Amino acid sequence: PASAAMLQENIGVLIIGNVVAFVVAIIAIRFFIDFLTRHGFKAFGWYRIIVGVLLIVLLLSGTVSNVA
């Protein structure tokens, strides 16, 4: 079938994509663990408060609609 031929042609690209995604994920996880070790959840807490207040203001002003 055509899909098997396409998979065979693109298997190298798929493998490289998976390896790159894995390496980037490991780097991101290490960065966030180091960040949390140094700063804790304080920055995350402030971020959530600021985004929450901003969303409430946007909803009340009618700029953003809460219709999904």
Q: What general outline do the C-alpha atoms trace?
A: flat
State which percent range the strand residues make up.
under 5%
Enumerate how many helices there are, as a single number: 2
Percent of residues in helices comes to over 70%
**How would you spell out the order of helices and strands?**
HH
**Largest sheet properties:** none
Radius of gyration: 21 Å
N→C terminal distance: 40 Å
Derived from helix and strand composition plus strand pairing, the structural class reads: mainly alpha
Can you tell me the number of structural domains? 1
Structural commentary:
This protein is mainly α and 68 residues long. The chain has one domain (2-61). The protein is built from 2 helices and no strands.
Defining key terms:
68 residues; mainly alpha; 2 helices; 85% helix; flat
Task: Summarize this structure briefly.
The chain is built from 2 helices and no strands.
